[in-house]
Amino acid sequence: DQQVKQNSPSLSVQEGRISILNCDYTNSMFDYFLWYKKYPAEGPTFLISISSIKDKNEDGRFTVFLNKSAKHLSLHIVPSQPGDSAVYFCAASADNSGYALNFGKGTSLLVTP
Amino acid sequence: NAGVMQNPRHLVRRRGQEARLRCSPMKGHSHVYWYRQLPEEGLKFMVYLQKENIIDESGMPKERFSAEFPKEGPSILRIQQVVRGDSAAYFCASSPELAKVQFFGPGTRLTVL
Q1: Residue A41: band (very low, low, confident or very high) from pLDDT cuts 50, 70, 90
Q2: A98 closest CB neighbour out of B4, B55, B107
Q3: In this predicted model, what pLDDT tens digit does every residue of B3-58 receive, in sequence order?
Q4: Considering Cα of A30, then A53, then B3, then A5, what sign does the dihedral take?
Q5: Is the dihedral of CA A7, A106, B99, A50 positive or negative?
Q6: Interchain CB distance below 8 Å, A4 and B35
Q7: Which residues pair with A13 in a beta bridge?
Q8: DSSP classification of residue A82
């Protein structure tokens, strides 16, 4: 039962342009959402998060947007850099689940020079 | 401040043997989570522990798998009588009390021959 879905397995973007990674969820109890970045053979690295009481959170080049009615969130990276090439995971948690994270399958981002 | 430490980074076992995976959380973190990632999949929650207590083990298989987080020393994920299907990357994450962001270790890659 995949409660967090990332429907695009891969995305290719030119350096300097915007990268938009999408994520959908089905569980209306989720109230906290996170994005992690992962390089091969390494653990996920926390990027940015958003609480369900907000609809936008920004940190430098990274912005996360949350649309609760659509159960959809997106990560915007502007401008994209070659070092951003990695797999990006969307994750969600609910207060009643002890903060266990539910992960999507990931989107592999390639930023080309 | 050292991050989450996991060892070994790579572990090879033959079918029927035992696998022991260790995780030392970040300094000051009292919550530990274990996740498993199969090839081409997202991370799946297994178990959530605090010192000397298992809080949520709903994601852990009922047989052959166990976890502990003793008062002293690292958290241990133990897999008895391993089978080929146990081959995966196992990630440990930690968080401070009452925090929703989890910080991940580099993972242990288990290969069962």
Answers
A1: confident
A2: B55
A3: 999 999 999 999 999 999 999 999 989 899 999 999 888 899 999 999 889 999 99
A4: positive
A5: negative
A6: no
A7: A111
A8: G
SS3 B8: coil
Placement of tokens 């502007």 in the chain: A78
Cβ neighbours for B72, distance < 8 A, ≥ 6 positions apart: none
Tokens of A6: 């990332």
Distance CA(A49)–CA(A90), nearest Å, equals 10
CA distance B92 to chain A (A): 9
CB contact under 8 A, A102 and B45: yes
Q: Which residues of A touch B35 (CB under 8 A)?
A: 101, 103
Two tokens at B108? 């242990």
Q: Do B101 and A105 touch (CB under 8 A)?
A: no
Apex CA A96: angle with CA A64 and CA B101, to 5°? Answer: 40
